[in-house]
Write a structure and sequence with these properties.
The complex is a heterotrimer of chains A (364), B (443) and C (370).
Chain A (H helix, E strand, L loop, with lengths): L3 H16 L1 H8 L5 H23 L7 H8 L2 H34 L5 H16 L3 H27 L6 H8 L8 H8 L8 H4 L11 H24 L10 H7 L11 H29 L6 E2 L2 E2 L1 H19 L2 H37 L1
Chain B lengths: L4 H11 L6 E8 L2 E8 L5 H14 L3 H10 L3 E3 L6 H6 L2 E6 L2 E6 L28 H11 L5 E8 L5 E8 L5 H12 L9 H8 L11 E3 L2 H9 L3 E5 L5 E4 L3 H5 L3 H4 L2 H31 L6 H10 L7 H21 L5 H18 L5 H14 L5 H21 L1 H17 L1 E2 L2 E2 L5 H6 L1
Antiparallel strand pairs in B: 1-2, 2-4, 3-5, 4-5, 6-7, 7-9, 8-10, 9-10, 11-12
Chain C lengths: L1 H13 L12 E11 L5 E8 L12 E8 L2 H11 L3 E3 L5 E5 L8 H9 L8 E6 L2 H6 L10 H6 L15 H9 L6 E8 L2 E11 L2 E6 L1 H10 L7 E5 L5 E17 L6 E15 L8 H26 L6 H8 L4 H13 L2 E10 L14
Parallel strand pairs in C: 1-4, 1-5, 5-6, 6-7, 12-13
Antiparallel strand pairs in C: 1-2, 2-3, 7-8, 8-9, 10-11, 11-12
Helix pairs in contact in C: 3-6, 7-8, 9-10
Classes of the chains: A mainly alpha (364), B alpha+beta (443), C alpha/beta (370).
């Protein structure tokens, strides 16, 4: 399978993060180390991607569940896959809940949240139940359909006359502040698209990235900077903290004078719903595949319905989450999740290296 | 050879006793007796006369006549596997001469005309399509694809109608997996009568793709030849002038042969136009309802006010208006297939004037609605392959339903849902919708 | 079995709610909002509603204005809702006008209401209405295709392009209200019979109107904030009679703050290029540099006077404070404190560079051919 799907996963993750949790944390800490965190995240992210893909290439055509089954004791595999599956579940869950809230607030305030989340869940569960190969194709198509418009909007926002670059420079005067762990971990989140390889490696012989790591690094840097600069420039260094969703408020402030529609915010929201649905589908598919490997197979009429059960649980959690979790709690969950993420990635790399060493020793 | 003449004659008389067109001719001359059995309605009497009668009375010796017969092209002796009655039904003549039992194919298929393409037309490409006779079709196709690797497989389908089927493929390019799958599925068919190749295609596709077609149906020989060279399998059937091309992916349904005949930029422009047409046909009604009823701030203020103004006289909600006009348009389209030629132009006038102008004047629909519905109707037929066009006609009602109940969110979710559904379809094991298809095929 | 399940799931969605379906002809679009000061500390909220007409081709500027007084804006809007038969839709409100009496006091809470409502466009235009907002809403200029359309077209260089109108978006107002180091401004719309004129700007400090600058000053303000393209500058002879009018083509202005020495110096560099539009005397191509110098002096004079006016009134609409914050390191509060003291004693220097492309389309020639 073509390696371009790795880039598809990475770019999808970067795009979702322009709106989701990353700007929330970065802007909250705009005077307390966000600038350094952005620049630190680039080498950290690049290194992680480089090593992870290098080690994964040592196991051609094997997904993580298969690797763990062959080379590690059962209890370890159980715990690790369970932990991983839950991580992916939470990723999708937070995106889903955020998106439901945004849709209700900005597009259709009269509709009940339950209806919105049921609609989304219908599609997401259908998508996550597809074959892995088909999930990749679907995501690629959705990304390619939406990317030109998103690029256009980002371009328009940079060239907007009302963007006050002085406010941005105020943010950059804080370059000397040392960021805390939470901010660095959040900033590296834009690079974590590669982690979905744990399942999709089943289709790849070799996932090494080579020199294109530089392109990935620059794209990530561009994403982080965009997510940071534009809201501050448009809403002011002091004023940007008032908004719950700074990026949506930013697109509300953009206007195409001679276009077919004047307010860009609707277009942007539509594109974002597309991208988020794709993102949640991907995350839940990967999470489900990992959990599927450790749960017993339930059979009904000779068909394996474990995936449906797992996704049913995910969906139920989604519904409960939408009904009972509010913005603040959601933000806290997201922050905790992102703090766990960076060490989890590092542990993942270490484990892969250890397994590789063990395998080479065994084969000698 | 083990069956005697009496056995065969009895069999024929038994099975065909209700067919007055069964002919039993005895030729006697100079002591030689030759008995002919054939069904006159399917045989070419002229050929029988020329090849069998005349020489019989010209030859002196029965041995010479025997030699003459045995050297005729397409004559052969009856074998164990042959079913004599079936041979008769298919237009062969049974010849009993001395101890030989021979059969000669003298089929007369009256419907050999080669029509012009009517369903799938191009501007500058070949203008004739396939005919309804298998042999003629084979002739046409072979003339377009002069390759020795062109393999032809014969089958019969339909328990009672027993239509002849031919599978064609280029043995060097074809994907053997797909071929095997096709054989399997053909074997599973258990129907009495199969009349057209589209019915066949329904039976060999999986139940999952109940809305979107996964097999292209075409009448163009140039398309067939092109697809043969790409490794696809063609299925032609006796009695229909359409062929099946499988496996097919989504892009095949959106491509027309014109793309190869026109300059490349024009072709690209046309492809983009087609996709725009597809988008319009699917989305316009749903977006209209979604925007005007849920989020009118989407438009510019002038547009919003003029839509509000034009809807002022309409007494019922927007979605009923849209549904009403769309159903009218569907009825018009369906009716125009069955209109007798004499009434044709009247119907266009009726449709255009009355449904359009008068409905607005009477205050039943708004002006904007007319434009939207006509745009949708026209852009629906931009899709080159009919089946896909029909599929899109149905899908837009789905999106309209979602828009009515949940507004724009529903439309977006519906679109993503359609993409997921298309991606999850398989055409004989090949992915239906993926971006760079050639690569997928090479795996 | 699967199909039954699917149907059940789908049907259950339908039972849930009415889902916000409201046809477009059941809504009234609010095109502009006016906030005035009423008696007894109440607010007078006026909403201009666009009434659609069946005549699609000509459009109509039929509109309805409803005013209501209440203690808070939300209450007033709610009362207005009960007075109309259709649902109020703020999605197309593109004009927000504050009455002149109102802005003499702090309008922070009013701007707050606007910023919280997600359905009012953030790209709505904001302005001050003189004598009050209601009069501006009531004005019906001839030839308007929709209500308030001429107001929409006046701002943002959408319709007319002139340096006398400063356009301020709602989100800009919200931003400037919070941002330290730059003060908000609003254009002033003056009602005149059935029409109105816009050529002055009000400057705010902490959301209270403290200064009005007239049309000439507005023009130069737009020049130095890079918001003006088609301007013209009048050159006068010594005895104050007009000499020629210079029409500008491109205006580029930038500034630098020099805080190393005390008192601080703010240096402006303005580059203007253009042609002569109207001449009251015969102009000579040779004397181009002389004409350029005249314009340069003109620009320098007006700009320095404007800047000093701002300094005297202790307002900073150009954003020098923000620039200071952007170029120095430290806590924001300290920086602002520092800047406040520096600004008072700062000196201004304006360097103008005028490029006259040619002396108009007409070549002034000496006499006629023989």
């Amino acid at each position: 399978m073509s390696k371009r799907f790795i880039y598809v996963m990475l770019i999808l993750n970067m795009l979702t993060n322009i709106v989701a949790f990353v700007p929330m944390v970065l802007i909250e800490n705009r005077g307390a180390g966000s600038v350094q965190a952005i620049f630190l995240a680039v080498p950290i992210g690049m290194l992680i991607i480089y090593f992870y893909t290098k080690y994964m290439s040592g196991f051609p055509n094997l997904g993580l569940p298969e690797i763990l089954e062959r080379y590690t004791p059962k209890w370890f595999r159980f715990c690790f896959l369970f932990f991983h599956g839950v991580l992916w579940l939470i990723a999708g869950l937070v995106t889903l809940i955020t998106f439901t809230h945004i849709s209700k607030q900005y597009i259709n305030p009269d509709i009940e949240e339950l209806v919105i989340v049921l609609l989304f869940l219908l599609i997401i569960v259908f998508g996550a139940l597809m074959q892995s190969r088909n999930v990749l194709y679907a995501i690629e198509i959705i990304l390619l359909l939406n990317l030109p418009f998103i690029a256009f909007i980002i371009f328009k926002s940079y060239t907007n006359q009302e963007l006050i670059w002085d406010s941005v420079r105020v943010a950059f005067t804080y370059y000397q502040e040392i960021p805390n762990f939470e901010i660095v971990s959040t900033a590296t989140f834009v690079y974590t698209g590669y982690a979905n390889i744990v399942i999709f490696n089943r289709y790849f012989k070799d996932v090494k990235v080579g020199y294109s790591i530089i392109i990935i690094g620059s794209l990530g840097l561009f994403t982080l900077l965009t997510t940071f600069i534009i809201p501050i420039g448009i809403h002011g260094f002091d004023g940007v903290g008032f908004y719950t969703f700074p990026w949506i408020a930013t697109t509300e402030a953009l206007r195409i004078e001679l276009g077919f529609i004047e307010r860009i915010s609707f277009l942007f929201l539509g594109l974002y719903i597309n991208i988020s649905i794709a993102s949640v589908t991907l995350h839940w598919h990967v999470g489900m595949e990992q959990l599927k490997a450790i749960f017993p197979k339930f059979k009904r009429k000779k068909k394996n319905i474990t995936p449906i059960i797992i996704l049913g649980v995910f969906a139920l959690l989604g519904i409960i989450g939408v009904l009972f979790i509010d913005e603040e709690m959601l933000g806290n969950i997201a922050k905790v999740w992102m703090v766990i993420l960076l060490p989890a990635q590092l542990i993942g790399i270490v484990i892969l290296k250890v397994i590789l060493k063990r395998r080479d020793k065994l084969s000698k | 050879m083990n069956r005697s003449k009496e056995e065969i004659t009895d069999l024929i008389k038994n099975e065909l006793h209700g067919s007055p067109d069964l002919v039993n001719q005895m030729l006697e001359a100079n002591g030689t007796v030759c008995e002919l059995w054939y069904i006159s309605s399917v045989c070419d009497s002229e050929k029988i006369h020329k090849d069998l009668y005349v020489p019989f009375f010209e030859e002196r010796d029965k041995k010479e006549y025997e030699d003459y017969l045995l050297s005729l092209s397409s004559i052969r002796q009856i074998e164990d596997g042959d079913h004599p009655v079936e041979l008769l039904l298919r237009g062969s003549v049974l010849i009993f001469l001395n101890h030989f039992i021979l059969t000669l194919e003298v089929k007369n298929y009256l419907n050999k005309t080669i029509p012009d393409t009517t369903i799938e037309t191009t501007i500058q490409g070949p203008q004739t399509g396939l005919s309804e006779d298998l042999e003629t079709n084979l002739n046409i196709i072979r003339h377009r694809y002069h390759q020795s690797s062109l393999t032809i497989e014969d089958r019969k389908i339909g328990n009672k109608s027993q239509m002849g089927l031919k599978l064609l493929y280029d043995a060097k390019e074809v994907d053997l997996e797909v071929l095997k799958e096709l054989h399997q599925r053909l074997g599973k068919i258990d129907k009495d009568v199969i009349q057209s190749v589209s019915q066949l295609s329904r039976m060999i596709t999986r139940h999952r793709s109940f809305l979107f077609p996964t097999i292209v149906i075409t009448e163009r020989p140039d398309r067939i030849a092109y697809n043969l060279s790409k490794g696809k399998i063609i299925v032609i059937m006796e009695g229909t002038r359409f062929a099946l091309i499988l496996p097919s992916v989504f892009y095949d349904f959106m491509s027309s042969m014109d793309d190869l005949y026109l300059p490349s930029w024009i072709a690209k422009f046309l492809v983009i136009l087609r996709y725009m047409g597809l988008g319009t046909a699917l989305l316009l009604p749903a977006m209209y309802v979604g925007i005007t009823a849920f989020n009118p701030e989407f438009f510019r203020v002038q547009l919003a006010l003029s839509i509000a103004g034009s809807r002022m006289s309409v007494p019922y909600p927007a979605y009923i208006e849209v549904l009403f006009m769309l159903i009218m348009m569907e009825l018009l389209t369906e009716a125009s297939i069955r209109l007798p030629k004499a009434i044709g132009p009247t119907a266009t006038t009726v449709g255009g004037l009355i449904l359009g102008q008068a409905a607005t004047e009477a205050g039943l629909v708004s002006n904007i609605m007319i434009i939207i519905v006509s745009a949708v109707a026209i852009s629906n037929f931009v899709i080159p392959i009919n089946e896909m066009s029909f599929a899109m006609r149905v899908t837009k009602y789905l999106l309209l339903l979602l828009a009515t109940f949940t507004g724009l969110i529903g439309v977006i979710v519906g679109l993503v849902g359609i993409i997921y559904y298309l991606v999850s379809l398989n055409s004989f094991g090949k992915p239906y919708l993926a971006f760079f298809i050639d690569e997928q095929f090479k795996e | 079995m699967k199909r039954v399940l699917l149907l059940l799931v789908l049907c259950s969605i339908f039972f849930l709610s009415s889902c916000g379906y409201k046809d477009i002809d059941r809504r009234y679009f609010v095109v502009s909002i006016g906030v005035d000061k009423g008696r007894d500390d109440l607010y007078d909220i006026s909403l201009k509603l666009a009434v659609p007409s069946g005549e699609v081709k000509t459009g109509s500027d039929e509109s309805k204005i409803i005013t209501e007084s209440a203690e808070t804006i939300s209450e007033a809007v709610r009362i207005i809702k009960s007075k109309t038969d259709k649902e109020l839709d703020f999605g197309h409100s593109k004009m927000i006008i504050f009455g002149e009496q109102l802005i003499k006091e702090d309008i922070d809470n009013i701007v707050d209401w606007f910023s919280r409502r997600r359905d009012i466009q953030e790209i709505a235009w904001t302005a001050i209405g003189r004598p009050n907002a209601l009069k501006i809403l009531e004005a019906e200029p001839v030839g308007e295709r929709l209500p308030s359309n001429s107001l929409f077209l006046s701002f943002g260089n959408v319709g007319t392009e002139t340096p006398y109108i400063s356009s301020v978006y709602l989100f800009e107002l919200i931003k400037l209200r919070a941002e330290r180091g730059i003060d908000p401004i609003l254009p002033i719309i003056e009602a005149e019979e059935k029409d109105y004129s816009i050529n002055e700007v009000g400057v705010f400090s902490n959301l209270r109107h403290v200064l009005t600058i007239n049309d000439e000053q507005t023009k130069y303000f737009n020049i130095i904030t890079n918001d003006a393209t088609k301007t013209e500058i009048k050159a006068e002879k010594e005895n104050e009679t007009p000499y020629f009018i210079f029409s500008t083509d491109r205006v580029q202005s930038s500034y630098r703050i020099d805080t190393e020495n005390t008192p601080a110096k703010i240096v402006f560099n303005i580059k203007i290029s253009g042609v002569v539009e109207e001449a009251f005397d015969v102009l000579d191509d040779e004397k181009k540099t002389e004409y350029e110098k005249i314009i340069e002096d003109e620009v320098k004079d007006h700009t320095e006077r404007l800047l000093r006016l701002f300094q005297k009134e202790k307002v900073d609409p150009i954003g020098f404070g923000l620039r200071y914050r952007a170029s120095h390191i430290g806590k924001e509060k300290t920086k602002i404190g520092e800047w406040d003291s520096i600004y008072q004693s700062a000196n201004f220097k304006v360097n103008a560079n005028i490029q006259m492309k040619n002396v108009g389309t007409i070549q002034d020639q000496d006499g006629y051919p023989e």
